[in-house]
């Protein structure tokens, strides 16, 4: 990944040199998100999607309120995974009927909030449906619901598989017809959501998943009420290392156009068709900036110690479920273009050897006080990390 923002050997975010931005924020470490990069990425996705396919933002990727306000003017809806995310989404201009609430283990309180707000509850189990029905009966509010379906297939090339085999996500596809048969009129059935895998960089795999998803949905639609909502999932990945190749959107857009023309529109004319993306929209628009507080030699290895760490960037440390640890791209913000020095280990400030942000990385000569920048930090950073670990203060987030 090549970050475009640079000026006179210094990295910039939103046109502002990182050193000046750090002074403006007042402390390190911090996250900075470039609003223009988000806008451009959404525009690129929209240009690739065919007419009739809407774009929803998965708030779990980055729920920063200022970012949500910005994104709300660019996308067609939100998907949330907690009551906290729901509150943030409802604070934007996005209508409640364009917000969906997915995730296993929704509490009665969360379901009550979602039903009262009028968002679509994506049902993850038969017992969740029973709880929704009980809440609707008690409140007199007819709940909007969709079925999240656990498909009978997996997606090749996905960093995390969310479908196929036994899953805590969704109702098994083979069980859905029986559940639909007993649905009744006490809830407002909207449609289906199928999301089989995430962080996929292979366009052919994503197209295959979309083909098989449509096959499954058309089979289920034959025994369901009219389908007014169809969430095809997403799973679009971003590159995290030099060996990763950026995802090609064009084949995906072409395949969706064919599916809409030949299969979805003729058979599900009332359906609002949605692609749901999170990481792909914001992941490459964010950086994590941390200051060097020490440099030490230990038995032939140079350690550069920074004031951040895995408590803010768990994924960059390799502790977010990765099978093989790979360094996130990083740079020294104030030394762009300088010659590379001997490899160093960039480590955080926590009392654990797991706090490794860069393993034998080649960077310009680093001195105490320099600013280290981790790229690809716009998604699954702060809110996917153990921020309370060792009670260090939370980092600031800024939208530039």
From TrEMBL:
CDD domains (alphabetical): PLPDE_III_Btrk_like (cd06839)
Active site: 351
GO molecular function: diaminopimelate decarboxylase activity
Modification type N6-(pyridoxal phosphate)lysine: residues: 60
Name used for this protein in its record: Pyridoxal-dependent decarboxylase, exosortase A system-associated
Matching Pfam families: Orn_Arg_deC_N (PF02784)
InterPro entries membership: Ala_racemase/Decarboxylase_C, DCO2ase_PEP1, De-COase2_CS, De-COase2_N, Orn/DAP/Arg_de-COase, Orn_de-COase, PLP-binding_barrel
Source organism per UniProt: Acrocarpospora pleiomorpha
Transmembrane segments: none
Cofactor names: pyridoxal 5'-phosphate
Record key words, sorted: Pyridoxal phosphate
Domain of life per record: Bacteria
GO biological processes: lysine biosynthetic process via diaminopimelate; polyamine biosynthetic process
Domain Orn/DAP/Arg decarboxylase 2 N-terminal: residue ranges: 37-282
């Amino acid at each position: 990944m090549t970050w475009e923002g640079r000026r006179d050997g210094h990295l910039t975010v939103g046109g502002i040199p990182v050193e000046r931005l750090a002074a403006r924020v007042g402390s390190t470490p911090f996250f900075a998100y470039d609003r223009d990069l988000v806008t451009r990425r959404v525009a690129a996705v929209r240009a690739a999607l065919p007419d009739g396919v809407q774009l929803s933002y998965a708030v779990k990727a980055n729920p920063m309120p200022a970012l949500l306000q910005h994104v709300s003017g660019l996308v067609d809806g939100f998907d949330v995974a907690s009551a906290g995310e729901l509150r943030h989404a409802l604070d934007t201009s996005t209508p409640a009927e364009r917000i969906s609430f997915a995730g296993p283990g929704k509490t009665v309180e969360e379901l009550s909030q979602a039903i009262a707000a009028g968002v679509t509850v994506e049902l993850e189990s038969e017992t969740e449906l029973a709880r929704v029905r009980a809440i609707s009966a008690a409140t007199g509010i007819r709940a909007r619901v969709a079925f999240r379906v656990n498909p009978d297939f997996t997606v090749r090339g996905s960093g995390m598989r969310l479908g196929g085999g036994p899953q805590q996500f969704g109702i098994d596809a083979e069980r859905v017809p029986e559940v639909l048969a007993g649905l009744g009129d006490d809830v407002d059935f909207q449609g289906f959501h199928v999301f089989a895998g995430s962080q996929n960089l292979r366009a052919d795999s994503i197209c295959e998943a979309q083909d098989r998803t449509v096959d499954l949905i058309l089979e289920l639609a034959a025994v369901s009420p009219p389908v007014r909502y169809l969430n095809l999932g997403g799973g679009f990945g971003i590159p995290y290392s030099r060996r990763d190749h950026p995802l090609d959107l064009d084949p995906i857009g072409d395949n969706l156009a064919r599916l809409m023309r030949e299969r979805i529109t003729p058979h599900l004319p009332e359906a609002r068709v949605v692609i749901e993306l999170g990481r792909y929209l914001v992941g490459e628009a964010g950086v994590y900036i941390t200051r060097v507080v020490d440099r030490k030699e230990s038995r032939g290895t140079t350690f550069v110690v920074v004031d951040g760490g895995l408590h803010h960037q768990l994924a960059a440390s390799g502790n977010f479920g990765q099978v093989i640890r790979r360094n996130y791209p990083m740079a020294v913000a104030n030394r762009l273009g300088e010659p590379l020095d001997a490899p160093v280990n960039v480590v955080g400030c926590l009392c654990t050897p797991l706090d490794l942000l860069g393993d034998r990385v080649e960077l310009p000569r680093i001195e105490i006080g320099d600013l280290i920048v981790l790229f690809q930090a716009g998604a699954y950073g702060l809110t996917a990390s153990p921020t309370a670990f060792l009670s260090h203060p939370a980092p600031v987030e800024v939208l530039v």
